[in-house]
Amino acid sequence: MTTAGPISLNTITVKTLTLPQVIEGCARHGITAISPWRDVLQAAGLQAAAKQIRDAGLKVTGLCRGGMFPAADAAGRAAAIEDNRRAIAEAHAIGADCLVVLGGGLPEDSKDLPGAREMMREGLHAILPDARAAGVTLALEPLHPMTCADRSVLSTLGQALDLCEELGAGTGIALDVYHVWWDPDLARQMVRAKGRIAGFHVCDWKVPTIDTVFDRGMPGEGVIDIPAIRAMAEAAGWTGGVEVEILSNRWWAEDPEAVMQAVKASHAHC
């Protein structure tokens, strides 16, 4: 087991709190890093939030999220690209290590999976110059194949690494154990990921899982061998610790103070 690197709190884990409340809670609980979602960042005001984060001395491990490029028409695709440019500017403003980028799902009424993947690829190429100019890493996050239709046509670490190799500088991987633990090719792909990991997200896969999106477990509650995957990440050069990202109706119903205490305690299972 390893405990090197900081614990980062992804704000979705305590989604009932405002960003200022999360920042204050992190300071109180000795959590030294944060990863905000764009909605809470925008609600707090970009410049005010950036100042509060700096004043609290928090590292920003990522901004969630960009991507979501596939759309039914050219106007929708153009709007997605513009939104990603705004996300890059926001990530730069708060000093985020990366902008987490999802592939997006199939456009409405579409069954064209190869076409959706090409829209994702074209979108990434369109925003890459902006990311490079801002010094923001685009961290491609493959999601579990169960999300392919509605959230991400980028399903495997191998796919994501292929894109990183094509795109080059300014890209990396956001590795979420919830989405990659099942992959029989994971160990080989983690060797390929050397030097490309830009974020390491942890939670757990509960058995039974009653909701494939909103029933994630706190590390230690499920079947994912998080320390083994973390060891692979560290062998690939990752030194940034873990970002706890829990989308869970059960944990959202808890007192956020108790959730932050559980986040701290969960490090023992990472």
Describe this structure in words.
The structure is a single chain. By secondary structure, the chain is an alpha/beta fold. Helices cover 44% and strands 14% of the residues. The protein has 11 helices and 9 strands. The chain has helices at residues 19-29, 38-44, 46-56, 74-93, 113-134, 157-167, 177-180, 186-192, 226-235, 249-252, 256-266, and strands spanning 7-10, 33-35, 59-60, 63-67, 98-102, 137-140, 171-176, 197-202, 242-244. It has a 9-stranded parallel beta sheet with strand order 3-2-1-9-8-7-6-5-4. Strand 4, helix 4 (74-93) and strand 5 (98-102) form a beta-alpha-beta unit. The longest helix has 22 residues, at 113-134. The radius of gyration is 17 Å and the shape is globular. The mean pLDDT is 96.
